[in-house]
Each structure stands twice: as C-alpha cells, then as structure tokens.
C-alpha cells in the first residue's frame, strides 16, 4: 500500500465531492449546501480534491450552479495540472448517488484526524532529535493535541456553550501550571505589552503609507517568531523580491548597514563576521518565502496548507493584500479585496496561526492635523478593518523633529483583546529594524473619542457586538 493510500481514502474524498455536485445537478441545493457547510478544504489530503472543494464553495458563494463546467470556470487548472472540468466530470460520473455522503464525509474527517495524530508524533520526534528542552517539546505536543480537540465529525455544526467550558478551564489550568504553549512575541517589548502578544487564529493588519516601515515591522516580527523562538514562518512577498527580503533580514539580524552591503568590496572583516553570524541564524530558522507575483487566494491557501502539512506553521505574512490577485474578473476591486480579506481571516482560523496582513493607507492622514492614520484609512476596502482582529498603523513623520530622529509610532487602532493605544519605537532604517524606545501608552477617553470623529457609518465599521 502506498504512503498516500495510508493517509487518506481517495474514494471517500471523491465521494463527498461527487455527492455535492450530484445533489446540485438534481436540484437539491439544500443538501449540497448542507454537505459543504460541514466540510473544509483542510479535511482533504489530496490537493486536487481540496482545490475542487474550494471551487465548489466559491460557486455557491456566488449563487452559481455547481457542475463540472461552472467549477472549471472558477478554477481552470488544479494543482496537479489537470483541468478542473475534466476531473469534476469524472468524479460526478463515478459517484452513483448522494445516499452515502455522510459516511464518506465521516471517513474524510477521521483520516484528517489520523494525519494530525501522525503530525503530533512527528513533531515530538523532531523535537527530541533536535535536542530541544523537554518543556518545549511537551508544550508543542500539547498544542497539537489541542488542535485535534477542535476537530469533530460531520454533522456536529453546533454545541451547547457549556460543552466549551472544559476547554476554557483546561486552558486556564495549563496557564496556571506553566503548561501553555509559549507566547509569540513581536520582538519589541512595548509592542507586546500594547497588543498582548500574538494570538493564534487571528488576522493582524499592519497598515502604513509607502516607506513608513510596515514591511520592516512585519519582517522583524517574523524573525522574532522563527529565528528567536524557533517557530516556523511563511512569507508571501508579492511586492518585494526574495533577495531583497533576505538582504534586509541579514542587515537586521547582524546589525549591518544596508548601504554598506550594497558595496561588498568595502566591507571590513568585522562586518563580514556579523554577516556570517546573521546568515547562520537564517540557515537554522524554519522560514519559507514565496515571491511569485499575482498569487490568488486559492494559490496562497494551497501553499500555506502544504507548508503546514510538511513543516508545521507558526505564523504567516502577506505583503501586501492589495497585490493579491482576484479569483474573478467580474468583481470590482473593492469587492475583490474584501473577499480576499475575509479569506485570509478564515485561513488564520483554519491553520490556527496569526497571519500578518500588510495594507496600504489612503492619503487622508496627510491632510489631518498631526498626520496620524486611523483604521478607516486602510485602502481598497473597509472589509479589511472589519475582518481584522487587530489593526496596527505604522506612523513615521519625517518632517517632524521626532521623525527626523527616527521616532516611529505604532498605533493599535483596533484590538479585540486589547484597548487602543500606541507605543513609540526607534527606527534604525540602516539596519532595517526597530528597537524599543520609551514604553507604550493607552489612549485617554478623550483621545479615543477624537479618533472616532469620522462619518457615522465609519464609527461602526469593524465593530462587533
């Protein structure tokens, strides 16, 4: 039996997909929607099956009929290179009826659990092989097991709130007894205090005007989680080439002047030594990068799932949301970015990791007294602010005296788990990094109200009861 056969049942995965399309073709849209609502593409091991499920979900989201032709219109080519229409037609033909869909779905779910159990063992074994501290190995394994508890059989779409209580109490008990997974730090002490560390299953938007330092901040956070804390990170760099990001990482980790690195012949021995130290750190780090321009959310999701499956994943970065390609030319840019934003939010929950989503700001702050940005200044779509669990705005005014000296404010303008406020950091542009400066500050009630002096609809955008 092949390795792939051991990790999933092809007949079950194809049976679920065929049942969805058959029910739609037979006019039973309620059944099709019921099946889709109980599955996620993460349940499917085969990448073609996961991609086809995404295409089916997309069709339903657009109120399109679900059949081999329409799913082929949404996504023409599958990860294997086969055409979606041909593969969908084959599956539909091979599934005789929808009668056994629930059995198929349960098998798919159970094999998803089996794969995660295998991953727990692999993660534990690798921790031992790498001579990691026992506490760290146990904490990582516990987190993986906690993810397993989140999985449930098809059909269990709701539960009593009281059923969640044991999970909450277990988490609190783990915290009291120092068994909780290590907190993910941004690498900046004052920023950690401001946002309360990085949380799992969250979408953190980092906004700023061009040149403000948002990419520099996000890359520094990625380095903190991967290089310093030993996590695994994935960067989608849709704007900056992988070589440039690598040079910035070397400069940041080694304290090397970027301008000096451009003229390698002039570097002194001590600078080469620091470059060697930085390169050594990067080689040891589990950080992956994709700089393919114009990636769509389907491609980003597929790559992220593959990295998580093969290496584990602690954090992800997308630079930036406005450059993610739309899956359909029929959407306006505002609608397209809104759908991309929501998809990134859903992906953070699916993967169980924080995702750093970089976003541009419009020009409104330049005409505002103090030039300080607000979450409502995020460009392209207000959906970004609504989906975000936290909105960090990087504010650097080079025309001010503080700005001339490199002082930069990181403003938390929206936080589900922390009050709004800001911290000041010192910009070391020559080293492509920030360092702590003078602490963090919560905004006063008066300052909060001043920031809310925007049109009525804007005041409530992004707020949830």
How many domain modules?
A: 3
* Shape summary: globular
**Which stretches of 5+ consecutive residues score pLDDT under 50?**
152-156, 454-465
Question: How do the strands of the widest beta sheet line up side by side?
Answer: 3-2-4-5-1-6-7-8-9
Largest sheet: 9 strands, mixed
> Mind telling me the C-alpha Rg?
24 Å
**Assigned CATH superfamily of the largest domain:** P-loop containing nucleotide triphosphate hydrolases
The CA-CA distance between the termini, in Å, is: 52 Å
Task: Report the total helices.
Answer: 20
- Roughly what fraction of the amino acids lie in strands? 5-15%
Work out the helicity level: 40-55%
Just give the CATH class of the largest domain: Alpha Beta
Mean pLDDT figure: 81
Helix and strand run: HHHHHHHHHHEHEHHHEHEHEHEHEEEHH
> What's the β-strand tally?
9
| CATH level-two architecture of the largest domain | 3-Layer(aba) Sandwich
- The assigned structural class equals alpha/beta
CATH topology of the largest domain: Rossmann fold
List the helices and strands and how they pair.
Elements: H1 3-7, H2 10-25, H3 29-37, H4 47-61, H5 68-74, H6 84-94, H7 101-129, H8 134-149, H9 165-176, H10 189-195, E1 203-208, H11 214-228, E2 232-237, H12 242-254, H13 258-261, H14 269-284, E3 286-290, H15 297-311, E4 315-319, H16 333-351, E5 355-360, H17 383-387, E6 390-395, H18 401-404, E7 407-415, E8 421-428, E9 433-442, H19 445-451, H20 456-460
Parallel strand pairs: 1-5, 1-6, 2-3, 2-4, 4-5
Antiparallel strand pairs: 6-7, 7-8, 8-9
Helix pairs in contact: 2-3, 2-4, 2-6, 2-7, 4-5, 5-6, 7-8, 11-12, 12-14, 15-16
């Amino acid at each position: 039996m092949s390795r792939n056969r051991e990790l999933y049942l092809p007949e079950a995965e194809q049976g679920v997909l065929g049942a969805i399309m058959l029910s739609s073709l037979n006019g039973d849209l309620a059944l099709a929607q019921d099946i889709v609502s109980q599955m996620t593409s993460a349940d499917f091991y085969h990448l073609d099956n996961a991609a086809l499920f995404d295409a089916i979900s997309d069709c339903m989201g657009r109120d399109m009929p679900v059949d081999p032709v329409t799913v082929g219109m949404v996504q023409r080519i599958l990860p294997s290179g086969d055409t979606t229409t041909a593969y969908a037609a084959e599956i539909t033909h091979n599934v005789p009826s929808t009668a056994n869909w629930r059995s198929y779905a349960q098998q798919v779910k159970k094999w998803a659990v089996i794969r995660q159990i295998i991953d727990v063992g692999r993660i534990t074994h690798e921790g031992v092989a790498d001579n990691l501290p026992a506490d760290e190995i146990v904490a990582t394994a516990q987190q993986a097991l906690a993810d397993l508890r989140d999985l449930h059989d098809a059909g269990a779409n709701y539960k009593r709130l009281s059923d969640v209580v044991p999970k909450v109490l277990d988490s609190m008990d783990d915290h009291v007894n120092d068994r909780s997974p290590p907190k993910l730090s941004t690498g900046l002490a004052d920023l950690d205090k401001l946002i309360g560390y990085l949380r799992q299953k969250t979408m953190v938007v980092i906004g700023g005007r061009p040149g403000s330092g948002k990419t520099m901040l996000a890359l520094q956070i990625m380095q903190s989680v991967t290089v310093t804390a030993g996590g695994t990170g994935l960067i989608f760099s849709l704007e900056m080439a992988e070589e440039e990001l690598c040079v910035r990482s070397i400069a940041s980790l080694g304290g090397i002047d970027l301008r000096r690195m451009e003229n390698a012949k002039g570097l002194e021995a001590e600078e080469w030594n620091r470059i060697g130290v930085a390169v050594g750190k990067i080689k040891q780090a589990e950080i992956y990068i994709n700089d393919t321009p114009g990636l769509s959310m389907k491609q980003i999701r597929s790559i992220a799932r593959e990295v998580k499956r093969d290496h584990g994943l602690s954090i992800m970065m997308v630079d930036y949301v406005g450059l993610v390609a739309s899956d359909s030319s029929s959407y306006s840019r505002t609608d397209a970015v809104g759908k991309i934003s929501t998809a990134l939010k859903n992906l953070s929950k699916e993967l169980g990791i924080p995702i750093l989503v970089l976003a541009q700001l419009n020009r409104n702050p330049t005409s505002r007294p103090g030039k300080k940005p607000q979450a409502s200044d995020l460009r392209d779509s207000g959906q970004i602010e609504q989906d975000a669990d936290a909105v960090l705005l990087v504010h650097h005014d080079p025309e001010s005296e503080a700005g001339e000296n490199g002082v930069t404010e990181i403003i938390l303008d929206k936080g589900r788990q922390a009050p709004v406020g800001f911290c000041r950091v010192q910009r070391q542009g020559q080293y492509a990094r920030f360092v702590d400066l003078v602490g963090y500050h919560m905004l006063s009630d008066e300052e909060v109200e001043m920031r809310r002096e925007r049109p009525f609809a804007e005041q409530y955008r992004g707020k949830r009861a």
